[in-house]
Write a structure and sequence with these properties.
mainly alpha
Length: about 325
């Protein structure tokens, strides 16, 4: 057997991080390691800007603060990989959280409260997914409508007044097992579950397939509508868990809670490397993105930066993340060409 083809391959091989001309492929390096490098850089910068950043109390506080956004981000990762969007996260969070606290105040049972909140999350998720797929309505329009409906429903249900008298409900958001907050353990469980669903199940493979090319997925026997509905239901469940954790942490059912959380969650997902065009994304990247947003929020608060400036900074972050996503995809396309 001739060894010439093998020799040619060996001689022509170049490291994956290099271009054919021998230069470094910065687009590939950014896509693989960019999020981690950004997170490390922000942590180093934060430690230099504030001596209290690396204290145990502050780091624990950061972990508690990122739980809610991270739960939302894990759910909406599935939605964005599918090439869809959900802007109703904050309102659904408030509705599910208030339903849970209301059941808790009435029955005194944490189990019933959690089940009621999760059931409401599943219902809202199913409604979003069904209307989007059955009536072919853009997900942005449908979830924008759900934002108003859910917020109006929770205000109507409570009369605008917070739900109090929650008893032991606060243990979910404020309690700890040893040095580890219970809310962080809850997040860890759902991060692992989300990772398994996305990487080790047929459902996860179908999510990537539908997000990458809806028509090709349909031609191969996949039902894209079913996958979208299931993804929205799962997203609704995580919205409910996030709402329960948030309301438990503040120990009251706040009908006005969750405002703006959808923006932080979507920012975390995009910063974590999930493309708004669909087809690509990871749960690991999403969690790192959530930590980046959490650290940025924390350091801005430690430095007493105005909330108005914080909004501007977050807006710039998501714009830069999208620009980098487009740049890396363009660079890869040119390389293939």
């Amino acid at each position: 057997m001739s060894t010439e083809p093998m020799a040619a391959v060996t001689k022509g091989a170049t490291p994956k991080s290099q271009t054919k001309s021998g230069g470094i492929d910065f687009a590939l390096i950014y896509r693989k390691y960019g999020t981690v490098l950004i997170f490390a850089g922000i942590c180093i910068l934060a430690s230099l800007l504030s001596p209290t950043f690396l204290t145990e109390a502050n780091l624990t506080n950061v972990l508690r603060q990122v739980v809610v956004v991270s739960l939302l981000a894990c759910g909406v990762t599935f939605i964005i990989i599918l090439g869809q969007i959900d802007v109703s996260l904050g309102s659904v969070l408030a509705l599910c959280g208030v339903i849970a606290t209301s059941v808790m105040a009435t029955t005194g049972s944490i189990t019933l409260a959690v089940l009621a909140g999760v059931a409401m999350g599943m219902v809202t998720g199913f409604i979003n997914g069904f209307v989007i797929t059955f009536f072919r309505i853009p997900s942005f329009i449908m979830t924008l409508a759900m934002t108003t409906v859910a917020r109006g429903a929770v205000l109507l249900y409570t009369g605008g007044a917070p739900v109090s008298g929650l008893g032991e409900f606060k243990i979910i958001g404020q309690g700890s097992i040893g040095p580890i907050p219970i809310s962080v353990l809850i997040l860890a469980i759902f991060v692992v579950l989300s990772w398994i669903l996305l990487n080790k199940t047929k459902f996860g493979r179908y999510v990537y397939a539908v997000g990458g090319n809806d028509r090709a997925a349909r031609s191969s026997g996949i039902n894209p509508d079913s996958i979208v509905v299931k993804a929205f239901i799962y997203n609704g469940i995580l919205c409910a868990i996030a709402g329960i954790v948030l309301m438990s942490r503040i120990n009251s059912g706040q009908p006005a809670g969750g405002v703006g959380y959808e923006f932080d969650a979507i920012t975390a997902v995009v910063v974590g490397g999930t493309s708004l065009m669909g087809g690509t994304g990871t749960i690991t990247g999403t969690i790192i993105g959530s930590m980046i947003i959490g650290v940025i929020n924390n350091i801005l608060n430690l430095m007493n930066v105005s909330s108005y400036w914080q909004q501007i900074i977050k807006g710039l972050i998501i714009a830069i993340a999208v620009i980098l996503d487009v740049w890396t995809k363009s660079a890869r396309s040119k390389k293939k060409a």
